[in-house]
Amino acid sequence: xxxxxxxxxxxxxxxxxxxxxxxxxxxxxxxxxxxxxxxxxxxxxxxxxxxxxxxxxxxxxxxxxxxxxxxxxxxxxxxxxxxxxxxxxxxxxxxxxxxxxxxxxxxxxxxxxxxxxxxxxxxxxxxx
Length: 128
Fold this sequence. Notes:
54% of the residues lie in helices and 16% in strands. It is of the alpha+beta class and 128 residues long.
């Protein structure tokens, strides 16, 4: 009985979210880095789905993400950068708002992964 109630509540919540965001509104506003994502796929560059699945790589990415999101001075852009760890080497990708944010995120990654283990490909996003 409890499972049925939970399922009904989950379905109702899903339906309310789906109807509150018309498809035309979300389709009109693509993410800022959609074009970059497509280019990276074509150029065989590391992408988020290539994150190492071993425990050490996952732990490195988790610790970096925790450090970045804990820093409330950073923009939402910086909080959402891609952190890809493969074989202990971290690649940072995506937009940030300022050169200072790029530096802060890069230093946070280096503190966790180690000096010389971070490839900082973060880009400064123009303010709209």
